[in-house]
Amino acid sequence: MSGASGGAEPSLTFDGSRIVIGRGGGSDVRLPDPSVSTRHATIRATGSDYAIVDEASTNGTWVGGVRLNPQSPRAVKSGDLVRVGRVWLELVIGQKTATPDLGLATRDLAFALVQRAMDAVGDDTVAKVRVAEGPDIGEEIRLSEEGRAYVIGRAETCDLPLADADSSREHAVVARRGGQILLRDMSSRNGVYLGESKLAPDRDVVWRAPTMARIGITVLALDEPVSAALAELEAAADEAMRADDIPASPVREPDPDPVAPSAPASSSTRGPSSTRGPASVTPGSLAGTAPIAEIAADTSQMTRIARPRKGWTMTDVLVVTLAVGVIAASIAGLVWVLR
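The chain above was modelled as a monomer; its predicted structure follows.
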């Protein structure tokens, strides 16, 4: 997923008939805001029509200014504004290529939102590898650079040099990619153990706390502040919103060249080869009207949910596209929780 932590809009595209929106790790659209219930709402497809259903959430699901009754489907169309807790979503009809590895992309999105909130309050968000046992106990490396390979071993040139005679000169590599930490054995003499499992040489393996890694007699711990905060948020009870905590509806500027999603397709325009994509939503085209914290000054992009026009076959259906820039109220809620 590109742009999860800034820059280009992050996007998720689903190919399926039901999409779960919620705070829980099992959600398809994972929004780590305490006002969003673990399983808050679902979007369901029937043929070429779509409906949203509130799953008995604590703070409700709203379409326009109307709160939905739990378990009562409400038809939605392109341009509808939906609120789950304090998070606003905009529904847009369109077609895109499905996102590969949606589970990873969904986690990276939630990770990026929590990291942004933690950065705003000055919390340390950098993952670290720390020596928990062995001759170099207490030494650590900060995995500050995305994608960089940090080398651990006996050589002085390593990013984390070890005084462990059982370690190879360049024993292992650790790298951070999105919300994942990857560990690799560099064909070392004595191998790398992650928990009780010995790693295959020269193959990246996901490393998650609190599992420890072992190199010779050295035991390495992984500290992931953002992952720990995300897990805490997802396990917490729902935060009941107060009346003065409800964000105002966003304001959308007119689209100078709008897509007409409800127009029937003729034989000359039917099908993906001649169908236009979703109406573009660029930074600044949507803005929250409620007072916001400084951290949210550049969060005018909103979640987009896209579906194809009528007349496409189900193989053409890319049910939901999410370009997620959660608006100010959501980020401000996370900031309040993480203070």
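The first strand starts at residue 11 and ends at 14.
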